[in-house]
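Reminder to self: tokens first, then the designed residues, so the page reads top to bottom the way the pipeline ran.
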């Protein structure tokens, strides 16, 4: 009975974490991103909007995909001191341009404080924000605009809760459970962001990498050693093995196909995973993930003609399976 109570509590807690992950999944890739069309209002013509776009790229305010330089506000303050870089724009137009970029940076994990409907932008009432239950009660539609709420919100909440219960069943209330739960949450967020945008934010990869190294020092048992310094070395080796393997295969792909075949986000993502799981399990993930990605890639190529698929989701799937059974697989294959 106590086991059922603990699992129920973990499931409920997982639902709450899943609700937060939905916020991360929606907001992280959308923070600080602009589109060319945003500048049509002040330029009046597509050609002029394109010119503004190129000026912003050259000036270093945005990249070619429209993501705003994270130091934008500092750059803007510098512009006030040294003069505007943007050419051919009067002061009023420049202020309007900067206001558009400022507005795009307003969306973050903690701003606005309350959840809102992506369609009508109205604030979600507290009783419409209860994991799983609210979605079912509202029949998957916004209370105000009645437009559909994507099923992903329901699925992420349930998935996160289920993963945490599975980890508890495997590891109990141990350091492995807590650290692997954090890693699994990062895997969930990265998976759905990568599906939608083909990027994995640095907040997940670099933040997770730092957390992985620190966790290895605090909990050396993650790397099957009582020594903190040895655990740190294993964590760094895992980081290098994970990130390095993806980097090398990406470089090899560029040589063969004459174009980028693996994004930098995937390299940092695998470095993060390796810092927690160590080099042996990181390499196991490296060899397992292509099997999942190949199946989906072949189907996507046949049905949609897609030439590029996000790789993060398949690294995530392989990583979670390795968390559960990686050591058993290694013992079976290599008797290590």
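Designed residues (336 positions):
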């Amino acid at each position: 009975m106590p086991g059922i109570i603990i699992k129920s509590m973990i499931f409920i807690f997982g639902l709450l974490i899943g609700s937060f992950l939905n916020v991360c999944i929606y907001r992280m890739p959308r923070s600080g991103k602009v589109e060319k069309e945003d500048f049509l209002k002040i330029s009046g013509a597509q050609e002029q909007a394109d010119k503004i776009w190129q000026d912003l790229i050259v000036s270093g305010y945005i990249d070619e995909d429209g993501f705003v330089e994270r130091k934008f506000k500092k750059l803007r303050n510098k512009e006030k001191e040294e003069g505007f870089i943007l050419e051919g724009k009067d002061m009023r137009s420049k202020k309007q341009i900067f206001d558009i970029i400022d507005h795009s940076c307003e969306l973050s994990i903690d701003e606005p404080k309350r959840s809102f409907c992506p369609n009508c932008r109205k604030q979600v009432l507290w009783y419409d924000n209860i994991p799983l239950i609210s979605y079912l009660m509202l029949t998957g539609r916004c209370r105000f605009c009645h437009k559909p709420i994507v099923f992903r919100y329901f699925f992420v909440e349930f998935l996160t809760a289920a993963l945490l219960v599975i980890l508890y069943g495997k590891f109990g209330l141990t350091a492995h459970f807590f650290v692997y739960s954090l890693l699994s949450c990062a895997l969930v967020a990265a998976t759905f962001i990568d599906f939608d945008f083909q990027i994995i934010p640095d907040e997940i990869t670099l933040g997770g990498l730092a957390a992985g190294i620190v966790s290895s020092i605090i909990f050396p048992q993650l790397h099957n050693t009582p020594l903190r310094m040895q655990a740190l070395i294993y964590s760094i080796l895992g980081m290098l093995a994970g990130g390095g393997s993806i980097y090398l295969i990406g470089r090899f792909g560029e040589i063969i196909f004459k174009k980028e075949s693996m994004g930098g986000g995937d390299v940092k993502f695998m470095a993060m995973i390796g810092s927690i799981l160590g080099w042996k399990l990181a390499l196991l993930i490296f060899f397992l993930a292509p099997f999942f990605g190949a199946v989906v890639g072949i189907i996507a190529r046949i049905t949609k003609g897609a030439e590029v698929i996000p790789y993060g989701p398949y690294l995530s799937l392989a990583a979670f399976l390795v968390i559960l059974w990686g050591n058993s697989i290694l013992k079976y294959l290599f008797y290590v």
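Residues 198 and 310 are 5 Å apart (CA to CA).
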